[in-house]
Give the backbone structure.
Amino acid sequence: SIPSSRSLIKILKKTGLSGSFRPDFWLLLGIYLAALLGNGLIITAVACNHCLHTPMYLLLSLFLLDLGSISTTLPKAMANSLWDTRAISYPGCAAQLFLLVFFMSTELCLLTVMAYDRYVAICKPLHYGTLLRSRACVHMAAAAWGSGFLNALLHT
C-alpha cells in the first residue's frame, strides 16, 4: 500500500532528508530570489542609464536599502525552515534587529526626502534648481542614512 504523507514525513525526518522537501523553504527561496532579481535588475538599470543619475532620483539608494532589508531576515528564516528549528543566538538576534531597523528607518527617511523633492518640483518648479541642488540632495540622503543608523543604534 502507499504510505500516507504523515508517515512519509516521519520517515524523511528520521533519515534527515525532510529539509529538502519543506514547501515553506521553497516559498521563501522563491520570494528571496524574486526580490534579488528585481532589485538587481533595477540597480543595474540605474547604474547603466545616466539619465537616472540625477539627484532627484535617489533610486539606487532606495533599492539598495530594499535589498539589504530583505537579505537581513529571509536567509535565517530559510535556514530555520530547512532545518526545522527556531534557534537564533543572542548576537545574531541583535545584529538582525540592528540591520532591519537600520534599513527600514533609512528607507522611510529616504522616502520622506523623495516626497519633499516631488513637493518642491510640483509646487515650486521655478525654485527647484536653487532649492534642491545636487549638493542638497546628497546632504539629505546622507542625513537619511545617518538618522537610520542612529535610530537602529538606539533601538538595538
Observations:
- The chain is about 80% helix and 0% strand.
- The CA atoms of residues 17 and 58 lie 45 Å apart.
- The longest helix spans residues 90-123.
